[in-house]
């Protein structure tokens, strides 16, 4: 149910917010590029437009399939073109031949570009450079043409970026969350504690003996748990991964190492230990 609400809501909301921002600031957020090549704006548009789809699936406890990622691609493209279309429908020209976004004057579709009426496709071309407005045979503004090939390249680069972001945002939102096929629900996660990486083997051995003993696990946490403000370059972490309905539950023991400003997991050290439901109840009930 929430998927059907969130999906159109984030798509329409993304288009509306970007158009309003562009009109108020004069800055085209959706086509912003970093270092003239990284399409930051298009990536943000695609991710925002498709986020509702994956958030809805997560809240509805529906598994994400290949078709959903394809839909995410489509939503990214629709949002990117949608921004131009809404921009086209809300662009007017005043009597003083100035562009207006307050519905004053005549719609841009009444005007000509290169001797032809400005249709949406013509507006797209104009928005990406290389043409000039005309009103009743008289030019409006100055013509700027950085090159049709370059314009087309950057436009379709943005389209591809918006599409990819629409799919990849699903991996960000859903991530590696496990899905319980038996209960038709996503597993929940809870961080239990962190401890010094130097005691990794010692703690792991003790954890193996605590899979059915909440009291033993609490003692381990009390004995080996790190202080929250501890300054380290690496640490181990124990997370509880469990289905909220059935007895499918595990402990993941991870090692995280400082990489730049963030801690990244060292995958080869991860260990997974099945635990009983009594442990889950003790720490989540």
Provide structural commentary.
- The chain has 285 residues and is an alpha+beta fold.
- The protein has two domains: 1-175, no CATH class; 180-284, no CATH class.
- It is 46% helix and 20% strand.
- It is built from eight helices and 14 strands.
- The chain has helices spanning 2-25, 40-59, 66-89, 120-127, 148-174, 200-208, 214-224, 277-284, and strands at 92-93, 99-100, 106-107, 112-113, 116-117, 133-135, 138-140, 179-180, 185-186, 188-195, 234-242, 249-259, 262-265, 271-274.
- Strands 10, 11, 12, 13 and 14 form a five-stranded antiparallel β-sheet that branches. A four-stranded antiparallel β-sheet has the order 5-4-6-7, with no helix packed on it.
- The protein is elongated.
- Residues 130-146 have low confidence and may be disordered.
What about the largest sheet? 5 strands, antiparallel
Low-confidence stretches: 130-146
What characteristic shape results from the CA principal axes?
Answer: elongated
Number of domains: 2
The SS-based structural class is alpha+beta
Overall number of strands: 14
> What is the alpha-carbon Rg in Å?
27 Å
Number of DSSP helical runs:
8
Mean pLDDT reading: 87
DSSP helix fraction = 40-55%
Distance between the termini: 27 Å
N-to-C SSE string, H for helix and E for strand? HHHEEEEEHEEHEEEHHEEEEH
Percentage of β-strand residues: 15-25%
